[in-house]
């Protein structure tokens, strides 16, 4: 079983990435900066996350659901996790760690 790996979208608050990795250092959560996502179009971000077998974590409720729907009609994806912008950072961290602990990449 393979552990889930995460990719932060450029709009995701960095404090969520930092806090998640701080609380669970074994969790693989690549920041948008590390992946060079600033200014990249949504379809390219989805393709990158899919290619690297990572779950994209985003706050983007406006365009990502539409782009993701189009993306999965032609390519496979390792999924998207959309977090509300107003979700407290601690709750966002808890949710990501829970998903990581309770799931595998194959699920």
UniProtKB/TrEMBL annotation:
Residues annotated as domain DUF5615: 5-82
Pfam families in UniProt: DUF5615 (PF18480)
InterPro entries hit by this protein: DUF5615
Protein's name in the database: DUF5615 domain-containing protein
Organism placement in taxonomy: Bacteria, Bacillati, Cyanobacteriota, Cyanophyceae, Leptolyngbyales
């Amino acid at each position: 079983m393979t552990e889930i790996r995460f990719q932060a979208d450029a709009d995701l608050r960095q404090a969520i990435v930092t806090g998640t990795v701080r609380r669970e250092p074994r969790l693989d959560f690549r920041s948008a900066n590390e992946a060079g996502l600033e200014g990249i179009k949504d379809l390219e971000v989805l393709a990158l996350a899919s290619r690297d077998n990572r779950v994209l974590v985003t706050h983007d409720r406006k365009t990502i659901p539409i782009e993701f729907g189009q993306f999965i009609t032609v390519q496979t994806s390792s999924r998207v996790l959309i977090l509300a912008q107003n979700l407290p950072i601690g709750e966002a961290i808890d949710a990501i760690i829970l998903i990581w602990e309770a799931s595998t990449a194959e699920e």
